[in-house]
Structure formats: C-alpha cells, structure tokens
Amino acid sequence: xxxxxxxTATKGTRTAARVAGAVKVYGAGGTAVRALDGIDVTFPAGRxxxxxxxxxxxxxxxxxxxxxxxxxxxxxxxxxxxxLGTLDDRRLTLLxxxxxxxxxxxxxxxxxxxxxxxxxxxxxxxxxxxxRGRGRDRxxxxxxxxxxxxxxxxxxxxxxxxxxSSGEWIDALVDVVGLRxxxxxxxAELSGGQQQRVAVARAFAGRPDVVFADEPTxxxxxxxxxxxxxxxxRAVRQMDRTVVMVTxxxxxxxxxxxxxxxxxxxxxDRMESxxxxxxxDRLKAFxxxxxxxxxxxxxxx
Length: 301
Ligand SMILES: Nc1ncnc2c1ncn2[C@@H]1O[C@H](COP(=O)(O)OP(=O)(O)OP(=O)(O)O)[C@@H](O)[C@H]1O
Known about the structure:
Layout: H1 7-10, E1 15-26, E2 33-44, E3 48-52, H2 59-66, E4 74-79, E5 82-83, H3 89-99, E6 100-103, H4 115-125, H5 130-142, E7 155-156, E8 162-163, H6 164-177, H7 192-205, E9 210-214, H8 222-239, E10 243-246, H9 250-253, E11 258-263, E12 266-272, H10 276-290
Parallel strand pairs: 3-10, 3-11, 6-9, 9-10
Antiparallel strand pairs: 1-2, 1-4, 4-5, 7-8, 11-12
Helix pairs in contact: 4-7, 6-7, 7-8
C-alpha cells in the first residue's frame, strides 16, 4: 500500500461539496426573488471556508442548497461525487444524516438528554451500526490517509466513548471540545458557549464529509464565540475535517482558511488566509458598490 500523503499535500485536492450554475428563485412572477444567480463554488475537503456577504446576498440560501436542506431552481449541488438533485427524499435524508453535520445559531440540543447522549444522538437515531458507519468512513478516507482508528470493540455508548474506533473518535472529540467533565450534565446546566460546543461535537460525531455552520456564534458572547471558532478550526486542522460557515462577522471569518464573498446572489471574490481587517475592508468595498448599482453583476428577479 502506498504511504499516506503528507497532510498538506491533500489540502484542497478533494472536494467536500460544490455547486455549479446554482440558481435559486423564491416565488414567481413579479414578486420572484433571485437569491442565487448562477454560482459556481467548490468547498475543498480538509478546509475551513467562510461564506460572507451583505444581508440578503444569498449566504444562507447557498448553504441550504449545498447541504440538501433546500433545492436549487437550476444548476447542480454535490456532496462529494453525489449530485443531490438525483436523490429522492429518502436518499437525501439519509445523505444529510450520514454525510453532513450541522451547527446552527440556536444550539438545538435535546434538553432531557445528557451531553454524551446529545453528542451521539444522530448516530443512535440512525441506529447506525457503528460497524456500518466505520466501514463507509474508512472507505472514503482510506484513499488519502491512514485513519489509525482501528481498535477495541467494547461498546459503552453513553459515556461519550462509545465502542471501537467510533468510540475513539468520539473520545477525541470530547477532548477537543473540552467537555470531558460535563458529559453527564444536561444542556440547561451548561453555558451557551458550552452548549454550542456540544452541538459542534454532535455535528462531527458521525465523521461527516462536511459540517455546515450557519452563524454558529450568533448567540454567543465574543469569548465563547472565539472558543467555538477555535474549535471548528481545530477540527479542520487537527482532525482533517471540513467546515463551511456562514457568518456576518469578519472576526469569525478570519478563523477560516478562505472566505468566499457573495453579493446579490453571485460569487464576487475569494480571499485566502483572511484577517478580520482585510475582510472588513472587502465588505466595505461592497457596501460602497452595492448602494445603488451593486458591482454591475446584481441579481435581477
Ligand atoms: N423562503 C424565502 N422566500 C422568499 N424569499 C426568500 C426566502 N429565503 C430567502 N429569501 C430571499 O432571498 C435573498 C437571499 O436570502 P438569504 O437569507 O440567503 O441571504 P443572506 O445573505 O443569508 O442574508 P442574511 O445575512 O440577512 O441572513 C433575500 O432577498 C431574501 O429575502
């Protein structure tokens, strides 16, 4: 077997998600809104990408269509090699469950379950034979790197460890999110930042192809928000995960490897290695342009 490539060599070479020619029109006739106006964008695996743009520029619509939560009016959306438009509702639901993680502004934890139970909930609901999940994941990732997740097969599901290599993964996640001493608490006993860290751990628990985060720090104070953003960054850089995050906040976007900018339903710019100041400057430039005539590429319904 070939030696696994160095992590940097794999960066940006696999595609976690992409849309091509993406158009989304809400409504019809005179009241139609063209929320996406022909977007081509690729979200590389193993990267943290932020989606930014003025209010109403189509960020959430892009995320929802890329994640299979909503359908495009025309164009295509892919998770890996799977074109979402070819899936019936059932297969789309399974794809979302098995291959995508979500983090929303509201933490959406189940109040009656412990932290550990919340983290493993999607896998438990799926009744995912951990064997099945593990095999699929291994097949997918084995191409690019050795996962080193083999191991014991004991199954103590609700202590946050789980069984076998999935358990080792959950175990590592619990440490990354810093929740080891909170595993048996209920969400109401946690701060907002801690609750969002549980939601982040839950999103990554099934080792999805990509985690989509929609304003994940919107309900948090800046310090807790910073912790959650650091966490997303660590998951990408230390655990080879993929994150696509919608945000209004240049400071949040600066945690990403790359920022894609939308304006009037179009992709207007990309920025590698962003800083908050550069992102802010770029947004100001849009504001100047979008007051009035946008940048000449404005969406028309
Ligand atoms: N369900 C809907 N029905 C009709 N129009 C919609 C719907 N959802 C979004 N829109 C419109 O589509 C456009 C893009 O909305 P979207 O929420 O994607 O933008 P956004 O960049 O995420 O905005 P914000 O930053 O304010 O959340 C807006 O003009 C919005 O009013």
